[in-house]
Amino acid sequence: MLKLKTKITELFNIEYPIIQAGMVWVSGWKLASAVSNCGGLGLIGAGSMKPELLREHIQKCKNATNKPFGVNIPIQRGDAEKLVEVTVEENIKIVFTSAGSPKRFINVLKENGVTVVHVVPSVKFGLKAEEAGCDAVVGEGFEAGGHNGLDEITTIALIPQLVDKLNIPVIAAGGIADGRGIVAALSLGAEGVQIGTRFAATVESSAHPVYKQKVVEAEDNSTVLTLKKIGPVRLIKNDFAYRALKAEMNGWDEEKLKELLGKKREMQGIFEGDEKEGELEAGQSSGLIHEILPVKDLFQKLLDEIVEVQKRNNRIINY
Amino acid sequence: MLKLKTKITELFNIEYPIIQAGMVWVSGWKLASAVSNCGGLGLIGAGSMKPELLREHIQKCKNATNKPFGVNIPIQRGDAEKLVEVTVEENIKIVFTSAGSPKRFINVLKENGVTVVHVVPSVKFGLKAEEAGCDAVVGEGFEAGGHNGLDEITTIALIPQLVDKLNIPVIAAGGIADGRGIVAALSLGAEGVQIGTRFAATVESSAHPVYKQKVVEAEDNSTVLTLKKIGPVRLIKNDFAYRALKAEMNGWDEEKLKELLGKKREMQGIFEGDEKEGELEAGQSSGLIHEILPVKDLFQKLLDEIVEVQKRNNRIINY
């Protein structure tokens, strides 16, 4: 049976260094507990939850798994402090932070014995996270779905540069949807992977069936990074995404772009399944996803693929 | 001693599936022969050569190595037909084509027993290359230096999708500068790699010392893909690149952008070393390049790194 031991499996006391990204409208207790039960690390995505709803998800997740799981908190959210409070009160020991400075909550989290991981799009932000006291970083490449960095650094370029410059372990994210991507990430020096879109298109994901179907139908060029002036986001191309792209090409300013975006388009796209006007946040790896599997089946498939890839590499590389 | 056997080493009858990209103003006979002498595949970049200069480089390359080498021909060039003619006359048996439809010269090349590889940025163009009769494709990701595709698909997302959809072998390019990138590419299913920027910054490269120095100084976020409306190109950020970016942000049309670009900026940047106003074409892997080595030393370093990475993977992945 496959064993995968890295600094990340040690850090979280998990079996496999495969982390399910905490995604808005996608990863509630069902998805997170399913991933943790397989030996990976499930994350509840607090970004689309009010504090009391987060508490409910944490409690349900505790009932559904005895294995470690965590919570992802986007720091820039207005009520992020409340989300952190709930997380600490509920005795959660693993928190992934994103979208904002990790300094803001690191003290309260570390005082409560929480392992803190921050998501970064570049070496500069990686160094800041390490300096702030984070235990690890997720290096997220340009190909990742949803919100993204301004520097457009891709996974294959970003990960080895983070590994060279940081002392804390690096988890790779962006473009990874199968065993090939996982072994590629390990080859780049990552100690683990964070997988988003692939888990968003599982049975246990709370995304709308229409969203999942759009991911399955997507090809290599079906997503685009847009709205760069007001916060880059990678979306499956639809009516809204094309309008945003066109506005960008025509040089619209921030104010006009914000008006175009409006509010709640993430919910509209991912949770309500509005395939035309919603934001269908997904990564370039969508083109690798052809079926909506239960987490258990997907996880076993990933493990089988890892073995297959490593065997092939050992056939090719004779040293 | 390391052995690396793939469909690409068989196709070209070379020892290692490491191909040096045929780059304008960079890869003449000196670089190409040095790479081929190490057991990789050197490519003469015809894109910046008049037909008779190409002939001279081919002849000098023949004198400098007994190993296989090839020529890269950008199909959209005005005198591409002449370049193809010279290549065939000089009995070159390996041609990489890029920037244009591979159909244009495939018949004359195949009739003369040439192995033809086309560079593609997406599955769509990969399928077209296969249909045209190409023997392999280079899948080039968004992170690659120089001219790039419109779909912005990155190496880690592109390569497995090409591998799944094509029957001919796939060579990975974009973001690869060391052994980690090479093993990552093999993990993704590639049969070989094409490396550009790393070879552009070797002793044998004909790029200007200032260009090489800019690559060495570059960090993870030092390059940018710009001029998307008139032909996307990845450059090290300098005065010209910032002007181009600003014009793009302000929604300039094609005509104005072409005027801004003008002519000969590639030569000005890469060959003449104008660090402010020239186009310094380079990939995101620049941030991984810290020294200007002779090809022989670099090649040995890559091979050593491949072994190191595969050993680490075998320590992590126990099946």
Fold topology:
The structure is a homodimer of 319-residue chains.
Chain A: E1 3-4, H1 7-12, E2 18-20, H2 29-37, E3 42-45, H3 51-64, E4 69-74, H4 80-89, E5 94-98, H5 103-111, E6 115-120, H6 123-132, E7 136-140, E8 146-147, H7 155-165, E9 170-173, H8 179-187, E10 192-195, H9 197-200, H10 209-217, E11 223-226, E12 233-236, H11 239-249, H12 254-261, H13 265-271, H14 295-316, E13 317-318
Parallel strand pairs in A: 2-10, 3-4, 4-5, 5-6, 6-7, 7-9, 9-10
Antiparallel strand pairs in A: 8-12, 11-12
Q: Which assembly state applies to the chains in this document?
A: homodimer
Helix content of chain A: 40-55%
CATH architecture annotation name of the largest domain in chain A: Alpha-Beta Barrel
Strand content of chain A: 15-25%
Query: How many DSSP E strands of chain A?
Result: 13
Task: Indicate the mean pLDDT of chain A.
Answer: 97
- The end-to-end distance of chain A, rounded to whole angstroms, is 25 Å
Helix and strand sequence of chain A:
EHEHEHEHEHEHEEHEHEHHEEHHHHE
Instruction: Please count the helical segments of chain A.
Output: 14
Shape of chain A: globular
What kind of sheet is the major sheet of chain A? 8 strands, parallel
Q: Note poorly predicted spans of chain A.
A: none
Largest beta sheet of chain A: what is the strand line-up? 2-10-9-7-6-5-4-3
Largest interface: A-B, 62 and 62 residues
Question: How many domains is the backbone of chain A divided into?
Answer: 2
Structural class of chain A: alpha/beta
Superfamily (CATH H level) name of the largest domain in chain A: Aldolase class I
Radius of gyration of chain A: 18 Å
CATH-derived topology of the largest domain in chain A = TIM Barrel
Give the class-level CATH name of the largest domain in chain A.
Alpha Beta
